[in-house]
Amino acid sequence: KRQAQMMAARFTDHEGAKKEGLPGAMVPGVMSQAILAAMIHRWAPDGEIVKIDTIFRAPVMVDQRHHVNGVVTDLDEETRNAEVDLTVTNDAGETRVLGTATVKLP
Length: 106
What we know:
The chain is an alpha+beta fold. Helix content is 30%, strand content 38%. The chain has a 4-stranded antiparallel β-sheet, with helices on one face. The chain is elongated.
């Protein structure tokens, strides 16, 4: 149980994260991916995310402002599949998370 609490500290506690060598608490990767998925659903509320792949290049830090972006790079009008490039960047313009998604549009 103690090990689970120590691992979770990097996500919930600035001091606990600093003890692990991080500058502060960070957002879990799966949450970053969920935020990207939420952005897709805001753009295409009736769309279906067929596939989403993400690469975590650097920690997304709690208490820092981040920008979530998506750019449609391809649209297959026959299958109604859109390919979307995804990024999470910080205010310094550093890419923290990047990825791609395939979205089936209605």
